[in-house]
Amino acid sequence: MDTVQANIEKSARIADIAIKIVWVLLWLVIVILAGVFFLTILIYCVEGPDGFSVFITTENVLEVFGSMILPDGVSPFEMFLRAAAVFCASTISYLVLLAAMLRSMGKIFSEIRQTLLPFTTANAQRMKKASIYMALLSVVPCLIGVAGNAVLNVQVDPLPLSLELLLAAAVLYCLAHIFEYGVLLQQQADETL
């Protein structure tokens, strides 16, 4: 029994540390992505559209974003900013939801490491929360991309709707119910002893 508990503690520690590292790296990417976007806007506010005319031309915008049609009166840089806004909003929403899901999963491994008990009510609740984040992760970035394209009149390919991730969220939610049942069985076993 001691070997099993030692293996559980070791596995939970490794998973907890790995998830914390990935969580920190995700937030670093989010900050860098948002910073670059807002720095671009700041430079545009200071320099105006002429400050970017050397780098962003109609050909460059079409090369980056494919068969985009520039409406009359819209500069290539303005279209680039619109497309970048849709891309950033969709990507940042994806990364934030991924970080939230990983945080919930990290708390599960952290508690397992401390208590050596996987079947707790708190872990079941955290699994449900992670499954909800996972379901949102499969849908929200796609919806933001579609809505952003419609509102800003650009044609950027949105992040795809992930049916696999939605199915994985449903499976994780079911596993959370299995964990709740495991809590009940563990309580009954403890009362019997």
TrEMBL record:
The lineage of its organism: Archaea, Methanobacteriati, Methanobacteriota, Stenosarchaea group, Methanomicrobia. This is DUF2975 domain-containing protein. Keywords: Membrane, Transmembrane, Transmembrane helix. The chain crosses the membrane at residues 21-44, 80-102, 132-153, 165-185. It comes from the Archaea. It comes from Methanocorpusculum petauri.
